[in-house]
């Protein structure tokens, strides 16, 4: 789950990271009132869950409250990378001297969190990684020892901070790490962390991604979820208890088990196709959940064929087959369907599917199923 800039910054501030004074508004007038309280120039910032808002006109400086109203009005009518702007953050404008990048992500290969810093702040870190990889300094954090003082000192030196700033930088780095840990984040980022005209460090932008699997420990964060972050399909899937990620390919996948789903996607690719989604219907999937899943898959206009790959362990193949048939009644698919059902009650499942009037091709191995699905999506498979 991604958090908005203002949410991320508030969580950082709880752990001692200095952030600008400011507040959030949903109307231009509200933005104006905040600007009045600030008694000086402000920056009006669109709160949408994408990067590069600056370039898209979603971040504007205002000298007066009247100007803030005007800018908030313009920003609130924007759509940035397809997302409507519903909120603006009005922050006291910072007098920026230099922009630094500071972030933490999980380094899976290393099984540790890694902190990264760069003197090339303000721009997207992926861009820096591509053009100036040496400008990114990294330290790996031992989960038992935590982030050590010598590590933050090394980062500060590495990015060319002068001695007067190393102490403040260290405190901010520690605060960021604490926030990252406390909220089960998979990413916590300040970009830019700025040095102001009066020599202070300030987190001007903030970004946090929370591990969805940790959300049950943070009911307060779960409430912060912005439904605009998800496509309508992803939203429905989450409500139905399905793990669903929409992709760009043309083969809809309905699979039980995350590992099997990944393997299914790989093998589709291997045979020259592209998956339209990742979907795990979970263990013991009942007919109704299967029907919801199929409905979601078929709502995607890119889908040219559907591959069912179900391993019946806890999940019974006849239950899944019933779900497929129920869904057929409702959505009346017009694309070819390939099914591989193996395991518990597979004979009953296959029997049910064979009675269906829809174009359903069966397969026994995963390779066969994937090849048939790829052919079906190309219109080269006759049932
Ligand atoms: P992003 O484009 O979505 O990453 O949004 P940011 O919050 O990082 O803002 C983009 C850029 O706008 C920053 O890198 C700064 O250069 C500039 N900016 C943001 N806030 C302020 C501010 O308070 N004062 C000034 N002068 N510039 C700002
Ligand atoms: Mn930024």
CATH class of the largest domain: Alpha Beta
Beta content = 25-35%
Query: What value does the Rg take, in angstroms?
Result: 25 Å
Low-confidence sequence ranges: none
**Mean pLDDT over the residues:** 92
Per the CATH scheme, the topology name of the largest domain is Rossmann fold
Shape descriptor: elongated
- Provide the number of structural domains: 3
Tally the helices. 13
- Distance linking N and C termini: 42 Å
Distinct bound molecules: guanosine-5'-diphosphate, manganese (II) ion
CATH superfamily of the largest domain: Succinyl-CoA synthetase domains
How many beta-strand segments? 19
Helix content, binned percent: 25-40%
CATH architecture of the largest domain: 3-Layer(aba) Sandwich
Describe the sheet with the most strands: 7 strands, antiparallel
From the helix content, strand content and strand pairing, which structural class follows? Answer: alpha+beta
Write a brief structural summary.
The protein is α+β, with helices and mostly antiparallel strands and 383 residues long.
Would you kindly provide a written description of the structure presented here, covering whatever features stand out?
The chain contains 13 helices and 19 strands. By secondary structure, it is of the alpha+beta class. The protein folds into three domains: 21-92, ATP-grasp fold, A domain (Dna Ligase, domain 1, 2-Layer Sandwich); 96-222, ATP-grasp fold, B domain (D-amino Acid Aminotransferase, Chain A, domain 1); 231-377, 3-Layer(aba) Sandwich (Rossmann fold). Strands 1, 8, 9, 10, 11, 12 and 13 form a seven-stranded antiparallel beta sheet that branches. Strand 18 (337-343), helix 12 (346-354) and strand 19 form a beta-alpha-beta unit. The longest helix is centred in the middle third of the chain and has 20 residues, at 163-182. The two termini are 42 Å apart. Guanosine-5'-diphosphate binds at residues 43, 45, 51-54, 59, 91, 93-94, 96, 99, 122, 191-192, 204-205.
């Amino acid at each position: 789950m991604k958090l908005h800039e203002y949410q991320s910054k508030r969580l950082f501030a709880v752990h001692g990271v200095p952030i600008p004074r400011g507040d959030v508004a949903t109307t231009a007038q509200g933005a104006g009132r905040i600007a009045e309280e600030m008694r000086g120039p402000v920056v009006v910032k669109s709160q949408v869950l994408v990067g590069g808002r600056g370039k898209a006109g979603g971040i504007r400086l205002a000298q007066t409250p009247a100007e803030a109203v005007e800018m908030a009005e313009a920003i609130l009518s924007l759509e940035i990378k397809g997302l409507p702007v519903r909120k603006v953050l009005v922050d006291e404008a910072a007098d920026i001297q230099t922009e630094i990048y500071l972030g933490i992500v999980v380094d899976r290969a290393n099984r540790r969190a890694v902190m990264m810093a760069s003197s090339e702040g303000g721009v997207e870190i992926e861009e820096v990684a591509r053009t100036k990889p040496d400008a990114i300094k990294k330290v790996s954090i031992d989960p038992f020892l935590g982030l050590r003082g010598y590590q933050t000192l090394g980062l500060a030196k590495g990015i060319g901070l002068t001695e007067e700033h190393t102490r403040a930088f260290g405190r901010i780095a520690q605060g960021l790490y604490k926030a990252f840990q406390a909220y089960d984040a998979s990413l916590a980022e300040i970009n830019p962390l700025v040095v102001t005209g009066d020599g202070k460090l300030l987190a001007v932008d903030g970004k946090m991604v929370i591990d969805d699997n940790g959300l049950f420990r943070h009911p307060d964060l779960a409430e912060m979820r912005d439904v605009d972050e998800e496509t309508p399909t992803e939203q429905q899937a989450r409500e139905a208890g399905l793990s669903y990620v929409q992709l760009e390919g043309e083969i809809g996948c309905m699979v039980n088990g995350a590992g099997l789903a990944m393997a299914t996607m790989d093998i589709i690719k291997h045979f020259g196709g592209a998956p339209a989604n990742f979907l795990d219907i979970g263990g013991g999937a009942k007919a109704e959940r299967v029907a919801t899943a199929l409905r979601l898959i078929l709502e995607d206009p890119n889908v040219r064929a559907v591959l069912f790959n179900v391993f019946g362990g806890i999940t019974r193949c006849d239950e899944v087959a019933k779900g497929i048939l129920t869904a057929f009644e409702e959505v009346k698919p017009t694309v070819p369907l390939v099914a591989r059902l193996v395991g518990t009650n597979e004979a009953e499942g296959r029997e049910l599917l064979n009675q269906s009037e829809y174009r359903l091709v069966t397969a026994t191995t995963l390779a066969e199923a994937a090849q048939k699905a790829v052919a079906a999506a190309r219109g080269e498979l006759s049932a």
